[in-house]
Amino acid sequence: MRFTVSQSSLLKALSVVAKGMGTNSTLPLLSGIYIKAEEGTLEFQTNNLTITIRHRIPANVEEPGETVVSGKMLTSIVKTLDDAAVTFDGGERTISISCEKSSFRLNTLNPADWPAFPEYSLEDATELPSELLSSMVDKVYKVTSKETTRPILQGILLTASNNTIRLVATDSYRLAVCDASAETGEGEFRTIVPGSVFHDVLSMPNLEERISIGTTDSQVVFTFGNTTFISSKIEGNFPDYRQLLPSSCNTSVHIEVEAFAAALKRVSVVAISNASVRFDIDADGKVMRLSASSPDQGESTELLPVEVEGQSLSIALNYHYVFDCVNAISDKKELVLELQSNMQPGIFKTNGKVNYLYMLMPVRM
């Protein structure tokens, strides 16, 4: 095997397949990157038994062949090289890598042992705008659960129908829902995608304008350009989140996002042992009072002018969770906080190109 490829395109290709590399030391083969050279094309594959990624780039291939090299080592080497032509030679037991005055020789693994790329037949599929979908995933994926006991809550529910995309995530303490208008084709597409996978795919450096998402009985398949990303599908029924959303509220508070974020950051400084921040809404005075306290550190208070519709009300919320909401809508100027009582969830909302709803369970005051 012998081929030449530019350092920049090689490094980009390695970054694309990096998320599929295994970290299990008992299976060193899956910590590697499979490389196949043929007819002007390089194919890279990674496989960690949950995720499989395939990516192709053009290259000057003098001798076709295949090999498996350490993904971590290869990436470390390529990062240090100048942006010039990189030549690979060998591959059966070792491979030589040269770039200008630099040269390396790496041990390789047997490509015959590499698992075959999965064959699949899509049962359903949709094509969506990548940039819009990426911004939506950024708003919800942190709300997915980190607990492995309920894998369904580690996923993001994706539905696409009637030219509306909707993403939903919950960890049972909070719920995030976002909607956006986009061409979705005919029928309804619905699947549950692992939150970390969804975020990794939409963060890839080679995303194209549109991304195809399809499903089999056990897989979710993403395709864009010369990249195919296959993940195991989360099985089960996503919680019926609609029944959790109240049809009305007793208090509606219009809040300026930038001022609120700054005030929350200051007030929460003392909330080290107690992550709750109290929200006291004064409907008559048009003021929201934020306060926090810690037995060891002391107390903090800040007043924010707000527009209030409805009655005065108080609620305590976990400020870490509130920050996740504020960070998700940092591009907005205003958000609305809707409250029913101090014992029922608070709901933050914003509207625009992407409509966002974030429901949060209260904590004891």
TrEMBL record:
Record's subcellular location: Cytoplasm
Residue ranges constituting the DNA polymerase III beta sliding clamp central domain according to the UniProt record: 127-240
Keyword Cytoplasm: yes
Alphabetized InterPro entries for the sequence: DNA_clamp_sf, DNA_polIII_beta, DNA_polIII_beta_C, DNA_polIII_beta_cen, DNA_polIII_beta_N
A Pfam family the protein falls into: DNA_pol3_beta
Keywords linked to the UniProt accession: Cytoplasm, DNA replication, DNA-binding, DNA-directed DNA polymerase, Nucleotidyltransferase, Transferase
Main location: cytoplasm
Domain DNA polymerase III beta sliding clamp C-terminal stretches: 242-364
A GO molecular-function annotation: DNA-directed DNA polymerase activity
Domain of life: Bacteria
Domain DNA polymerase III beta sliding clamp N-terminal: 1-117
UniProt keyword annotation of Glycoprotein present: no
Record's function text: Confers DNA tethering and processivity to DNA polymerases and other proteins. Acts as a clamp, forming a ring around DNA (a reaction catalyzed by the clamp-loading complex) which diffuses in an ATP-independent manner freely and bidirectionally along dsDNA. Initially characterized for its ability to contact the catalytic subunit of DNA polymerase III (Pol III), a complex, multichain enzyme responsible for most of the replicative synthesis in bacteria; Pol III exhibits 3'-5' exonuclease proofreading activity.
PANTHER family given in the database record: BETA SLIDING CLAMP, DNA POLYMERASE III SUBUNIT BETA
Assembly notes: Forms a ring-shaped head-to-tail homodimer around DNA.
Similarity-based family: Belongs to the beta sliding clamp family.
Protein's recorded name: Beta sliding clamp
